[in-house]
Design a protein that fits this description.
- Helices cover 68% and strands 6% of the residues.
- It is α/β, with parallel strands linked by helices.
- It has 2 domains: 238 residues, no CATH class; 94 residues, D-Maltodextrin-Binding Protein, domain 2 (3-Layer(aba) Sandwich).
- The protein has a 4-stranded mixed β-sheet with strand order 2-1-3-4, with helices on both faces.
- Strand 1, helix 3 and strand 2 form a beta-alpha-beta unit.
- Helix 1 crosses helix 9 and helix 10 packs antiparallel against helix 13.
- It is elongated, with a radius of gyration of 27 Å.
- The two termini are 27 Å apart.
Length: 360
């Protein structure tokens, strides 16, 4: 028989075995469907940097018509619930207990100094900056209206690709990328280690199956699961969360396939070091968490130290996030991100070659 044909026959048999194992095991079926959907819903609703409502303490030691007008302007925004305290000590105690998130203080000499003091809970620095910024803007606008002062320049703001500056269109495509990473790395590592634990890997050693055929079958089955998750979560993101999809499916498919090369290679590397499924799970999360942090998923890479920024060049998730967010929000494709596609291909090839050397 032709060696190529014989290899294809063996590969087809291995693929059938892999898909039957994935679909027959209740734990694998659960892992393929429930965690990705749960993560999408949890992060889609919970992941946000916006401060939509905050409890604010007001210490008005001036008690003048001007301060009452400013307090009314803050309350009218609907973003703040005001709690009035007679002195700073009581307000500070409430801030220490976590009952309020900031203090707005009008000093007794407000009519002369025209100064307002903000005290915010800096344990959450991002929220503190957002709250202080919103309060400051509200008070300044109210003061200008009361004084009848027109600003010398009228500023008109417009944001492209995310007109309302909502966090959800930014986070949900990133969630798709992280779910694909987590699912494929863990599944690849656990399926190989599972073969070793159950003893079926030793049985395969006495068959004509080659190492490359075995690994291709493993990777093809898990890659199918990863692509299924991409399609499923993308449909939910567009239909349920209203995230726009302005690009084309070819660009998303190409980026997903190139990213899967890296995630599958990492999963195979983990399986070469782990002896049990528990070890494979722990090693996977030990690698996945730094990849997510360094990818720019939640924290801008430009804000990281320069040495850490150089390290992010080795993170394939960084490039996949750029591609998937561009496909969803900007309508970009392969022509707009040749560098990102090239880096994913390079890192994926390196991960696969290294894993082929390690997996015996």
């Amino acid at each position: 028989m032709n060696p190529v044909r014989a290899s294809l026959i063996r590969l087809r048999a291995l693929l059938g075995k892999e898909f039957r194992q994935l679909l027959r095991d209740p734990r694998m079926r659960f892992f393929m469907l429930v965690p990705p959907l749960f993560q999408l819903l949890a992060f889609g609703y919970a992941a946000s940097f916006d401060v939509r409502h905050a409890e604010i303490a007001v210490v008005d030691q001036a008690q003048t018509p001007a301060t009452r007008e400013l307090r009314a302007a803050v309350a009218a925004t609907g973003r703040f619930t005001l709690h009035h305290f007679p002195a700073m000590a009581a307000a500070a105690a409430a801030l220490d207990r976590g009952e309020i998130r900031a203090i707005l203080r009008f000093a007794p000499d407000f009519e002369q100094s025209r100064a307002v003091q903000f005290v915010s809970d800096g344990s959450d620095s991002n929220s503190a900056q957002m709250i202080v910024g919103q309060l400051s803007q509200t008070l300044q606008q109210s003061a200008r209206r009361s004084a009848g002062i027109e600003p010398p320049v009228q500023v008109e703001e417009r944001a492209w690709f995310n007109e309302n500056l909502d966090d959800r269109p930014y986070f949900v495509p990133g969630i798709i990328a992280t779910i694909v990473l987590i699912t494929t790395v863990i599944l690849t590592a656990m399926t190989v280690v599972r073969e070793r634990e159950l003893g079926t890997l030793e049985r395969l050693l006495v068959t004509p199956v080659a190492r490359l055929e075995f690994l291709v079958a493993k990777m093809a089955a898990v890659a199918s699961v990863g692509l299924f998750d991409v399609v499923l979560i993308s449909v939910i993101a567009v239909a349920w969360f209203g995230v726009p999809f302005r690009g084309n499916g070819i660009g998303l498919l190409a980026g997903s396939l190139l990213f899967l090369m890296s995630s599958l290679g990492i999963g195979l590397l983990i399986s070469s070091y782990a002896e049990t499924q528990q070890q494979a799970m722990l090693l996977a999360f030990f690698i996945i968490m730094p990849m997510v942090v360094l990818s720019g998923f939640a924290f801008p890479i430009q804000n990281m130290p320069e040495a850490v920024q150089w390290l992010t060049w080795l993170d394939p998730l960084r490039y996949y996030l750029v591609v998937i967010r561009d496909v969803f929000l900007k309508g970009g494709g392969m022509g707009a991100h040749g560098f990102e596609y090239g880096m994913m291909a390079l890192l994926g090839a390196a991960a696969l070659l290294l894993s082929l050397q390690r997996v015996k």
